[in-house]
Design a protein that fits this description.
This protein is of the alpha+beta class. The chain has a single domain (3-146), classed as Roll (Thiol Ester Dehydrase, Chain A), CATH 3.10.129.10. It has four helices and six strands; from the N terminus they run H-H-E-E-H-H-E-E-E-E. It has helices spanning 12-19, 29-33, 64-73, 75-80; strands at 36-41, 44-49, 88-98, 106-116, 120-130, 135-146. The longest helix has 10 residues, at 64-73.
Amino acid sequence: MTRADEFALLDDETRARWMKFARPGTTLFPQLVGLVIEDVRVDYCRMRLPFRPELLQAGGIVHGGAIATILDSVMVPAVGAPLAREARFSTVDMQLQYLGAVRDEDIVAEGWVTRRGRTVSFCRSEATAEPSGKAVGAAMLTYHVAS
């Protein structure tokens, strides 16, 4: 059983809408960075940041900002998918731990809501390098939701 199996599936229309998040043709930051959603469910998302040399810092490892970006961005579909289409939400707190360096590998993150309130969602995300499976980062996040 995978972590994704713990979360309910979305209806087809909602899933299709969120699977387009960060796709080419959009003008949002996730597309600029190159993020790709692999799975989205109620309160859960899995996202990939394909490796490319532009993500490296001078030391030859992927920049920490890229890891932070995917750890935060993976929560957007997880938090947003169950909400009304017009709902607005944003990160208000993120506590990040860098667990390892990444060289020449994709970064895959999973994010899930641990508790959802009326206006606040508490979340967790974890990132690994693939194909090695090495843990590279983890975050605890809080999102404010304004319906």
